[in-house]
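Appendix B. One record, verbatim.
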Amino acid sequence: MEATPPAQRHPAETSGEEALEVYNTLDVDVNEDGDLTVSGILDAFKAYCLPRKNTVFERHQFWAHPMTENISIEKYVTELRQKSKDCEFGTSEHDMIRDKIVFSLKDQRLKDRLLREPNLTLERAIDTCRASETAKAQIQAMGAANQEKAVHVLHKRKTEDQQPQNKIKQQPAQWTQSKAQNKTVGSHTSHASAQHME
């Protein structure tokens, strides 16, 4: 009796005893004719072998995910979208991500602003956070420029303040020289007067 070519054999026949035991417990889809197909069997094995999702745990991971210091809103939303994939939020996914953003914000003024929005959408929340990030960066840049200008002004004042002191320090030396010259002139005058009187 000829052996059936491997390509035509039933997948369960070539899988081994353990796979056969699993196969016997699987709910395999059939085609329109009611026959089993290789793709149907493989899909059933994939569903069996893939780790089963724990929706409660995945949602816990989503809600516990922190908004770290200095993370951009774009990056944080990307992380939340990744985590929400296994949470099975369905049509509420955008609302859940929006709520998570608001709950996680450390900037109380920004959080207050978002909470005041009557019909806050995810897009609106992202736009508001993005605008706040841009404004903070611009204010910081302006502050750095002003600080540099202030340092320059202080340095200039310090330089100007030191110049009169140098002049004052130099004056006693000039006075001393001037007094010495006066004494010399005075002594010559006295000496000349004395000779004249003789």
